[in-house]
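In response to reviewer comment 3 from the previous cycle, which asked for concrete evidence that the modeling workflow produces usable outputs, we include below a single protein chain processed end to end. The sequence was submitted unchanged, and the resulting structure tokens are shown without manual editing.
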Amino acid sequence: MTLIIEIINYHFNQFVFLTKHFNSSYSSFAIMTDILNIDSNLDTPKNEKKAGLDRILSCLAHGEVTSEERILLQKAELMEIRFERKKSLIIVVMDLPAILTDDTLKRIEVAAVKAIPGMTIKIERFEREFNSTEIVTEDALKENWESVVSGVKSKMTQSIPWLLVSQPQLKAETLNVVCADSIAAGRLTVLKCGDAFLQEINKRWQGVKKIKFVEGSLELPLPEKKKVRSSKQKSFELLAGAEFPLRADSMKIQDIATPVRYAVIQGSLFNINIREGRKRVFTAGVTNNEDSIRVKLFEPPEKISELRNGDYVKVGGKIESDTFMNNELCLSIRDIARLGQNLRIDKAVRKRIEFNCHTKLSRLNGLIDIESLINTAKRWGWDKFVLTDDSVVQAFPKLYSLSKSAGIQMGLGCQINFVDDTKKIFKTQNSKFDKMISGSAVVFDLETTGLSANSNKVIEVGAYRVEKGRLAEEFHSFVNSGEKLSPVITKLTGINDEMLVGAPEWKEVLEKFRKFIGDSVLIAHNADFDAGFLRKHWPKKNEFPPLADTLGICRALLPRIKNFQLGTIAKELKVPLVEAHRAVEDARALARIWLELCVRLKDAGITKFAQLNELIPKIEAKRLHSNEAVLIAKNRIGLKNLYRIVPASHFEHFYIRPRVPSSLVNKLREGLLLGSGATEGPIFDSIVRGDDKKEIERIAKNFDYLEIAPPDLYSDKLAEGIFNSEDEIHELIRVVIELGKKMNKPVIAVSKAYHLESHLSASRKIVRIQKSHNLPSHHLRTTDEMLESFSFLGKELAEEVVIDAPSKLFDTLEDVSPLPKGFFPPIIDGADVELQKVTIKKAAELYGGKDRKFEDVPDIIKNSIEKELKAIIGNG
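The workflow returned the following structure tokens.
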């Protein structure tokens, strides 16, 4: 039944043809399935078509062609398959090597009748079409000479030995075919091969009327020597069967959908098992990291027992349903060879140092096994790296011990969720700003095409001027962004392309809005976001208006609400919000919220805008937005401070995740390096928001070094619309590098490794199920892979950030053991005396007879007590 369903999936004519001539033997059906599969996928990649063609020819011509002819057949390319149902004929059109004779093709056609009774297969050569209007040149002849000679060989097989080496030499309308010696030139002349050459050339060009065969100083190619495989480096070790069938191109395991008479696959072994019994059976799984298949071999030779999990093998055999495995497809091994282990190595002479590496002890994030990490580092020739698990340090002891044994120096670090709890609520460039909160203010909101002020555009502006406790004036305008809105933005905001038709451009709207603002204070919710879009195109950056953020004010005055979204705050303060995510409606609601907050601010004794920053200490740090950062211990003092910070993040500042306030880091900063984080760090956020240079530099000032990651690790930001192109990602990385130079801080490239190999990114997506959308591959990268990722910087700068800067930074770290050697019992004054007193008293009660005296305690118990007390007191 399954076979019939498979057949129906093909074209109707093919189905009629197949059912009419279907032979009961399984092999016939397998051949037809292969032919039909190839026919329906003629636009598939060449290597896949070639693999399918090889399977067909192997079935049809098994035992009918020589090994040399079989090798030539593997070079053929399938061009077309035609069916003539009435004649029971299949015509296979192939681009064949010229050296393959018509006799070979006829033998295959005869063999086809035996393989598929009732049907005939005809093999035709593919004839290429050429433009013969061009005038021939010697350069054109040399460029296409191999094709010309192949055409001659196919027409005159007798010429093959004499055209082993030849070159064209054009003189006016005469083509001299320069041969290796006079014998070759003479034989080609006698065979009258000139006509065949003229036909091939005139198909392509005009201008040649005569062919001459002449002797020249050409060297015959040396016969290809068989490679002698080194016993130390076995790149191909045959374990069972024959080597020749394994020369065929491998099928992708994920492409195996139906039984196949003979297929070749390759991949890594897992779950190896050799079962002893009446029959000895070898079973294993083979995976190419995309899919897997079970393989088995009855009565395997002794060499098979040498295979180990992880070995990379090439396997050939029959793919069929296995009744012992619920009819799953299984490959019965006929030929198998070991290719070694398919492992990456770091070939660079100068090795990089990884500063951002996460084991599986990282909280729902890392997948790297500690032993595998050490083995990989040893195999790559790395002698240094830094561990930075997420918010935890429990991998330190084991990893440090293993790294020491392997001769690897390990830096001890931790990735933290960094919170800037010193961020200002009110920002102004005028240090003497003294306006009252009851004065004129413009409360505004923007709707945009995305989250980045650098890559996205404003599509709507809504604002209200607030004066003397009331909404005085409204400003509203759509903005023609010049680009089509995405369905996501339309769904979120309710704004569509038609609403923007005829709207003014951003430059015009911004100028009108600037006049509307005048000398008022700007007020926004999560003000950094909206202000970033204004600041991006503000004419004079040093004249940007004073800015107050209602998000910070609400965090200080309304600490108990569940979140600080505009809708939640409006509900708390009983302010109506009719149509969220529309600029004018959000601005109206926020203006009324501002009036309510002004009342509460006055009750708190705050009457001026400049006093708003006095609210900062009242904000719970754990409720603030967090970014990635990295802490690394430089010495034992730094390690001790790291051991203080990590527990505090879990017990004192935990909100959804462990958080580390900047104030805590500053308090325990001695002996620690603070890194900026690469893809989710505060500097990245600040640049994307469109903060001014002073703000970006203020943030960067907190860090000892800046991190950048390979551009592909920002691909999720590209998908989210934060970046519009890879060039923008490159520009971001250049901005960070320039920032590091300006502030004299090292900039290092990190791979942010959460798993060792790229194919394991699928597993990490499962672990990170809530954040798996568009998650890039965070695999550990070799030096050359990192240099390639940063090649857009130029060789010198790429080597600086990938190799030199990390090496210099690592040199500042001392080799610190996570746990000191020896015992460190607590020291309690008088504890030893008190312990002896309590023990003697209790012994007297239990063993001192009626009088309960210690003197009456038996000697054996006294000696035991003395021995135990001595051991306990002596060792603390």
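The chain is about 35% helix and 20% strand. We consider this sufficient to address the reviewer's concern, and the full set will be provided in the supplementary archive.
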